[in-house]
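User: what does the whole thing look like in 3D?
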Amino acid sequence: MTHDSDSVVSSDLVDANRILAHFGILDAFGHVSARTAPDRFQLARNMAPALVTGDDLLEYSLDCEPIVGGPYRQYLERFIHGEIYRHRPDVGSVIHSHSPGLVTIGLLRGTPLRSVWHMSGFIARGAPVFEIRDTAGDDTDLLIRNASLGASLAATLGSASIILMRGHGATIVGRNIRHAVYRSLYAEQNAQIQLSAAGIGELEYLTPAEALAAEASVEAQIDRPWRLWQAAACATPHSSGQP
Amino acid sequence: MTHDSDSVVSSDLVDANRILAHFGILDAFGHVSARTAPDRFQLARNMAPALVTGDDLLEYSLDCEPIVGGPYRQYLERFIHGEIYRHRPDVGSVIHSHSPGLVTIGLLRGTPLRSVWHMSGFIARGAPVFEIRDTAGDDTDLLIRNASLGASLAATLGSASIILMRGHGATIVGRNIRHAVYRSLYAEQNAQIQLSAAGIGELEYLTPAEALAAEASVEAQIDRPWRLWQAAACATPHSSGQP
Amino acid sequence: MTHDSDSVVSSDLVDANRILAHFGILDAFGHVSARTAPDRFQLARNMAPALVTGDDLLEYSLDCEPIVGGPYRQYLERFIHGEIYRHRPDVGSVIHSHSPGLVTIGLLRGTPLRSVWHMSGFIARGAPVFEIRDTAGDDTDLLIRNASLGASLAATLGSASIILMRGHGATIVGRNIRHAVYRSLYAEQNAQIQLSAAGIGELEYLTPAEALAAEASVEAQIDRPWRLWQAAACATPHSSGQP
Amino acid sequence: MTHDSDSVVSSDLVDANRILAHFGILDAFGHVSARTAPDRFQLARNMAPALVTGDDLLEYSLDCEPIVGGPYRQYLERFIHGEIYRHRPDVGSVIHSHSPGLVTIGLLRGTPLRSVWHMSGFIARGAPVFEIRDTAGDDTDLLIRNASLGASLAATLGSASIILMRGHGATIVGRNIRHAVYRSLYAEQNAQIQLSAAGIGELEYLTPAEALAAEASVEAQIDRPWRLWQAAACATPHSSGQP
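Assistant: Here's the predicted 3D structure for the full assembly of 972 residues, as structure tokens:
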């Protein structure tokens, strides 16, 4: 894959933090990263996404070691990012969120996340649930706090665009930052619609062919929402702060 | 039908974009149009509704060709508008939205949208579900991207005021912009109330006679909410930006 | 009952319109009134509650005739107010709303509104459902558009503090404006909590004795929320505008 | 336990009032306190939390008598605080709220609050329901208005971090103010997720070992959300005012 220049990545990464916080996809927790080279990625230091500025971005190797050390705290779960970049060369951006609809579906073993509308056709590429007990037993803190757990998560993700993490959250990938932000927002909406309908009756889901066709059409237009979201979220530094 | 002057249409059309975005009926997607002559209508260029200004409005023929060409992108689904105006001479405005309650009911085959209160009596004129598979097979991107699909949608709409589009959204019509905006907002509320009640027990719906009588009474007062919505939504250019 | 001076009533009545609109109890429709003498009450002219100022208040007789005529439009449903004041000398303020939780419970014949917490003990005094078909047949517009329908509504209300109106909304009464506003806000919250629980399992409701004891305790403290609501809602003239 | 200096407590206590109001955990009712010495605690005078300033804080003995008398009104339910501090020397802060998800679960006897995700592992230490009828009969106003009721509540709380109060609200404890605020916000989110899932199917809850491990990991990072919440809630004095 080709890479945007570092300055473009940094600017979009700051905006992505603000946008995801503004719309309640990230609260004080969760994080978003971007690949800057085949073996490097950018991620903020340990802080609330809504408050991230360009000065807070760190460069990491895929081993999740910062390229330039310093007196900052790091995200415990940076291994989500490093291991997915290692296993998925097509991925340019990774978002780890705790958005409520995705958490809810992750708890319901008989209710897989499925594509309900054209805005989230990408879900049809798979939406596995990561059960950390299968890898690490039933007494963990559920966090992806080392490379081994990150590799298990990446293996379960496989070629999908999203993975639900039982009792924890979700991780979404895209070819670049705007793509991953788009998917994070509409995956949550898909979950909310699916949950609303599931309490009432049988749903008609997209066929796989519909989902892939819709993904191709809609994801070609990602710059349209991106510009709107920038305007709404980036003018005020922490307009939501939602818990 | 008579037509408002072009400048009145343009002013209301800009306001309608802002209002529908402010209240979450449109996000970065969806669109609103207005007929300006028996064989012409106005619609914004391809952009987020919350950001539309008077300079962004294009004039179209019913074939969905812009009257004046230019270097702008067009909405892929402008055929929703052109074909409904062709089939329904009584219609002066068309709104295509993805509002969540309407999307949810569109997924539930055993749960048709029905009029639950006096604010949305117009639903009793019919609320068919457009299943694109019946027309174009089960591998489309669900978009109404040509005149043929637009004509199928318009035929299924028939004489109704609203049509749900399975896995996609809804399209609402009115005699003018304010009328269609009113219906879009209250159709979504009707859907939310209906969904909330449907998970619990049996609902009492309006009789057809009640619905038509309520429609006549309430829709005579549309200027009252319109002025409020203008005040709330049009002072700040993109106050919501909701995804 | 004693009456506040007209200027106090007017000031609280303007604030009540703003507060009820700010918190989504009223949208562009619905209205709030206050009794100013045994046989008179104040009510705004026909307009969105969020935009009401002191200049918009009209004085009415219990026959719902304005004391001073003028070129203003009147609310069609002013008879809700006049007839309740006639039948209930203890009532100093009446609010007619379309708040969604109350509308939803009004549709569900097997689910009466019941007091779920100490904040809305007043519901235990009764929460009848007005079925307009019993009085006026099944082809009305559901509106209380004359004194006869208002008298039927008031008779069904009886000695209760709230009445649900099937397919339409609710009407809430209080000894004064602040009391009725308090009840309107917490009746809606009671409905939302009740609906949320009803989809899951059996609820434990307040006993009648608990409800009356809670009503006495909590309603003695109404000035505390009122001051907060004034601060939140009355600084900006139409901060919500919610449809 | 050690104690923060009085001025730190006061500053955090004012912020806690603002934060809890901003995010809808407290409305005009509910209160938050902090222990300032083994036998003393601070609590605002009787007022809406969103409006509390440093001048409104009172110092109390564990008997819930103000150390310095004055012409102010006191919270009726200050005994919740005094008796929990007496029974739980490990507790540095107590929050009494009416947040809707916790109220709803408190009504559902067959649905105990359980830990659904890593953000609220503390729930696994127990989440008993206080049924005031067991102590004081079925005709109370549900309020904890004396030391005897406070002692019963504290006894039912036992060593847990949260207690639901049927038909009333919840009380949450923490080792200090930030800890209790954190738990109040995420207990409500846990309840909302649990309610959303419970209407659909069987949930997978955290094991006790997972919950305790997650509690240890996540609660070590409480300063991260605190700073964000301060930024969001404390700039504007009463930004929500939510009823």
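In plain terms: Chain B has a mean pLDDT of 94. The interface with chain C takes residues 22-23, 116-119, 121, 185-186, 189, 192-193, 196-197, 199-207, 209-210, 213-214, 216-218, 221, 224-225, 227-229, 231-233 of chain B (CB under 8 Å).
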